[in-house]
Each structure stands twice: as C-alpha cells, then as structure tokens.
Amino acid sequence: VELFTALGIETSCDDTAVGIIRSDRNILGEAIKLQQEIHEPKGGVVPTLAMVYHQTFLPQVVKSALDNARLDVVRDIDVIAVTRGPGLAPCLSVGLNAAKTLAIVLGKPLIGVHHMEAHALTARLTNPELKFPFLVLLISGGHTLILLAHGINKYTQLATTLDDAIGEAFDKTARLLGLPWLKGRNGGPGAALEKFAAAGDPNRYQIPIPMTKEKRTKENPNMSFSGLKTSINILLEKENLDLRDFQVKRDVAAAFQATAIRHLSDKLNLAFDWCKERDLALNGLVASGGAASNKAIRTSLEKLAHDKYNIELICPPPHLCTDNGLMIAWAGIERYRVGLIDDYTINHIPKWPI
Ligand code: KG4
Ligand code: ZN
Q: Tens digit of pLDDT for each residue in 90-109?
C-alpha cells in the first residue's frame, strides 16, 4: 500500500489547530493556538473575535505544524484536509480559504471534512482494528449525537439533542457557578466543572433527570440538556445557596454532572435496544468530542458498554477528544482513500447534518 500524508486544518470554533499525519497512522506533527484568554472574560466564545484570532494566527500555526514535523509542504504533503462545517461561519471560512489556496496552488487534492465525522473517525486512528459498524456517541460544545456508523461518510443519526448540547450545558453551569476556566489544552469551563464535581457530593442536592415524563421509546432516544441548566438555576435560588462556599459549588457541580450522565446513559440504552432489535452486530461503542474527555463520563460509559452490553468502549485520549488538527487530517486520509475529493470552489457549511 502506498503511503501518503495529510495536513489538516481546524478553525470551526475557538482553537486554531493544524495536524499532520501519514496514512499508516504515524503522527508527524501538530500545532495549536488556543484562545481561552480571549473568550473567558466574555463568558463564552465570541464568533467575530474568534475569527480575527484565526486570521491572525492560522498562517503561523500551519508553519509551526510543518516545522514540528520537519516536513516541506511542497515535497511531503499529499492531501490538504479542512473542516468545512459544522461550526461558526466566520471561523470556518478562515480555515477553508487557507486550505483551498494551499491546495490549488500546490496542486494537491482538497478534502472538506465534516467536523463531527472527524471526531467519530478519531477512534479508527487510535484503534486500527475498529471496523464498521459501530455505535458513536458524539458529545461536544455544539452537538450531542448518537450515530450508527456504517462506513466513511455513511451514518444513521439515532438521536440528537432537542435544545442545548451537553458541552454547552457544562459551560453554562460552570458560568452559573462562577467557576474559573481551566487553562491549557483540555481546559475551559467544562473541564473546570469536572474538577469541581470530582471533589463534590452528587447526593447533597437533587436535580431532576431530563425527559423522564416523556414516553421512552427506542425510535426516539433524543436528549435535552437546557432543562438541566434551568434546574440548577432554580436550585441556586430556591435554596438560596451561598456560592462563596466552595463546597456548595463542588456539590452542585457533582449533582449536575451525575444527572447529565444518567440522562446520557438512559438514552444510550434506548439506542442499544434499537440496534438489538435490528440484530446489528456492533463492533464497539465510540465516545468522542470535547465532553468525552470527562473522566466521570468515560468511566460510566465504560461500565455501560462493558458490563451491560459486553462491547468495547473506544474513547480517544483527551487531547484527541477535544478539537485538534490531527482528527481533521485523519478524516482527510479516510475520505481520500475512498475517493471523496472536493472541488477547489467548495464553501463552508455552518449547519451540516451528518
Ligand atoms: O469537541 P470540542 O472541543 O469542540 C466542539 O466541537 O464543540 O468540545 C468542546 C466542548 C465544550 O462545551 C467544553 O466545555 C466541553 O466540550 N468539555 C467538557 C470537558 N472538556 C471539554 N465537558 C465536560 N467535561 C470536560 N472535561
Ligand atoms: Zn469538536
């Protein structure tokens, strides 16, 4: 088999990331520029600000990744991959235009990548033996999806969130509790909430599990996370909780996290039932996306997959669960292999169903 190398560009949200990987899974280099210190004072990611920082830093990040890999873009890179969507429109366009220009000028194939497919396919980068079909739980700041993966570019969406994404709920709850963001890769508000929850008592406060009043049906394992945030708000006001007390913050964080996990597990059970009814021989459960870097979530998914369904949980290491350039490069490799090459005129798709 002939080896080839892909450079992947990711600018769908607030991280400017570039990764370089070879088709035999050899990770050659990467670079990432985080924008946490820009957005934390604003309470969340500001799209127009994020765009300006992508514009400022992307060229340097591309150069750093190439230098880190000790590669020459003309000689050593065979394919240019880039996140085409979903994501913040102004941010996507920065990465896409850079990738299109690089690709056309260098005469290399361009691969527009679906950001959520890239999160899912990361599991095939870390676990070479993982074959289709498998079940995928994608949990990030913008999406909460349960997918059945049949092949590259072939997914059946079994469930989504009806309102907020789970990562968004973590972020909003961290904000309600006034938690300082954790710094660095795998940092941010969600990681801060996890840290507080880890030192808290999940049983001190009771928070209702979402959607328990609705009819539970295998045909509709959809989720809802906006009510959780509201429940936290109600709890804080009703009990008149003193947020200067750090133990209160830890216990509320723990209650939130435990409830979010129970809701996820409940809906995953329905998805497993759906697959069982169709006699699908699943080769694993994949969990990926930023919130899949959460240790409590990973542990509970591991239990569910292993103890209840006797199936392997494949969860990429935290730095590959949160947004990164390698996942885009790898998705580019997977798509290129099956002939999915794009035109140099493609545009971004901010809302892109999988
Ligand atoms: O995949 P990702 O890096 O970017 C998107 O595609 O959205 O996911 C970011 C989301 C954010 O909402 C962030 O708060 C959440 O993932 N997240 C976490 C953790 N680390 C990141 N949520 C819970 N626990 C964490 N440790
Ligand atoms: Zn993501």
A: 999 999 999 999 999 999 99
